[in-house]
Amino acid sequence: MSRELIKLKKEGKTQKERVTYVLFFADGAWVCGEAFLGGYIPTYSQRVGDLIKEGFPIARSTCSNKLHHHDSSIGSYKWDFSMKGTVNA
Ligand SMILES: [Zn+2]
Description:
Layout: H1 3-11, H2 15-25, E1 31-32, H3 33-38, H4 44-53, E2 58-62, E3 75-79
Antiparallel strand pairs: 1-3, 2-3
The chain binds zinc ion.
């Protein structure tokens, strides 16, 4: 688990704040939904949806990491630094 996730577990107040930090600090890398579950953010999917609605530049896809063995398809998300969001974070 990354240092950011551990820090957020301690300091992140809401699940939405933790989702924001995890994505931002991933530095443009795709973050599998499992990482959010590991960071105690069970509602990550809804929270990402909220952030996108608010104008944050977040891209959504399905996790295609072959090293992950999900029972079902699971979302993957990234902060798209090339995308112009309407919110400056
Ligand atoms: Zn995955």
